[in-house]
From TrEMBL:
InterPro entries from the UniProt entry: Carbohydrate_kinase_pred_CS, CARKD, Nnr, Ribokinase-like, YjeF_N_dom, YjeF_N_dom_sf
Protein name: Bifunctional NAD(P)H-hydrate repair enzyme
Record gene name: nnrD
Cofactor annotation: K(+); Mg(2+)
Catalytic function, reaction form: (6S)-NADHX + ADP = AMP + phosphate + NADH + H(+); (6R)-NADPHX = (6S)-NADPHX; (6R)-NADHX = (6S)-NADHX; (6S)-NADPHX + ADP = AMP + phosphate + NADPH + H(+)
Species whose genome carries this gene: Streptomyces camponoticapitis
Keyword field: ATP-binding, Isomerase, Lyase, Metal-binding, Multifunctional enzyme, NAD, NADP, Nucleotide-binding, Potassium
Function: Bifunctional enzyme that catalyzes the epimerization of the S- and R-forms of NAD(P)HX and the dehydration of the S-form of NAD(P)HX at the expense of ADP, which is converted to AMP. This allows the repair of both epimers of NAD(P)HX, a damaged form of NAD(P)H that is a result of enzymatic or heat-dependent hydration. Catalyzes the epimerization of the S- and R-forms of NAD(P)HX, a damaged form of NAD(P)H that is a result of enzymatic or heat-dependent hydration. This is a prerequisite for the S-specific NAD(P)H-hydrate dehydratase to allow the repair of both epimers of NAD(P)HX.
Residue sites binding K(+) per the record: 62, 124, 160
Binding site for AMP: 392-396, 423
Amino acid sequence: MRIAYSVETVRTAERELMDRLPDGALMRRAAAGLAAVCVDLLRRRGRVYGSRVVLLVGSGDNGGDALYAGAALARRGAGVAAVLLAPERAHAGGLAALLGSGGRSLDNSSDPFDVLAAADLVVDGITGIGGRGGLRPDAVPVARAARGSGAVVVAVDLPSGVEADSGEVVGEALRADATVTFGTYKPGHLIDPAREYAGATRLVDIGLGSVLPSVPELEALQHADVARLLPVPTGESDKYRRGVVGVVAGSARYPGAAVLAVAGALHGGAGAVRYVGPAGDAVIARFPETLVHAGPPAKAGRVQAWVVGPGLGDEPGVRDALASDVPVLVDADGLRGLDAGAVRARTAPTLLTPHAGEAAALLGVPRGEVEAGRLAAVRELTARYGATVLLKGSTTLVASPDLSDPVRVNPTGTPWLATAGSGDVLSGLTGSLLASGLPARDAGSVGAYLHGLAARTAARGAPVSAEDVAAGLRGAWRDVVSGE
Ligand SMILES: NC(=O)C1=CN([C@@H]2O[C@H](COP(=O)(O)OP(=O)(O)OC[C@H]3O[C@@H](n4cnc5c(N)ncnc54)[C@H](OP(=O)(O)O)[C@@H]3O)[C@@H](O)[C@H]2O)[C@@H](O)CC1
Ligand SMILES: [K+]
């Protein structure tokens, strides 16, 4: 499991740890880890000795980390030059270490842009967790020059300019090839758009784990976590004990959505799929194992979870499903005009699965606001609806209405998933996991994980259809179980 803590939590833990350690110990640990990554990257491009390293140094400890790491690189024979953005406030100990190790700080006679253009590696120590509100104007030209050079750009802790706590990028930020963070991930390492700015992220252990709270703010499941959650039939299981998932989807206009949602549902571990709606013929033609019923859902027979909404158009069904006493997943057309009171009144779990546009409509804000602030949006939706919410997108988030549950971030997403019908597959799959007995947050995060993995494997760098994603689910499940 990858976990992330907010800046406030990190600062509290850092103070507690610092009280027990000699002065500057944490920064030395951080800088040593940073320097080791830089050495590794320089070796891959040639060698450390004689390489040209430029440090972008801001006014705080983030710059201090860069300066100490620069000192270590200078001791190994790299030519290290520091661009001090606030010369009078640069970290004094770090600067002394750099100068004492043979590095230099650029004076007025050197043009930082020439030096950056010739660099092999740039270390971004402008801001870390103390940064707010995007890069300041004086930092923008050097950040752009770093990106425009042929150098590999390594961000210290976070790419400067991103918001550590939300993953938002307000204004300009530096795009790194790699980010070296310390003690724990922060939300910005896991959530787009900041995640994308960070490149490959490495975590350096500085001993913070022992003082961090046991429950993080965010968590991203990995294969082993998902494998533990997957439903596994036992000797006593029959199709009803494994769970029946009811799919209320499709319409005369969109029969395909019904077929895709059923395709997803058949791969989620439920023992049977009951389709309810007007697209029964199309469903049966493709999946003869499906139990079909024209509706309404209340008359269709017992299920352990409902999926309602994909391609539904104006067909009814949402109210029936919400009135049931089993878990309900609401997606797509089911989300239009969704009655928050009806959702809040439910005693069984409800899982809403909007994409950014649908989330924006539910919240009454522009879509861009949801895309830029995904964490805030998903939390607001859980609060308004009293439901678990899976917010689809470049980093899919799953949040439960219980604020003590960490928000789950899906790490397997791929841009190839932005394809018509893939959301219908996800709904069916996740509903099936609900019917097998998984709690809503687990069903949502396991569903998103398998769905992303299936898309990645099916795509392998080329476009995929929603059908390909559904067909890839069995392989994704196997990969998770076998740990591949
Ligand atoms: N926590 C830990 O466990 C450990 C932390 N460590 C390291 O310390 C880092 C945190 O250091 P920090 O607190 O000194 O803040 P930091 O990010 O350097 O910012 C400094 C100053 O920048 C300024 N500034 C703000 N916004 C800006 C902007 N947009 N553009 C430009 N400037 C801006 C603002 O100063 P102002 O100019 O407003 O006075 C702010 O105070 C952390 O990320 C990690 O690298 C490790 O060494 C050890 C373990
Ligand atoms: K940085």
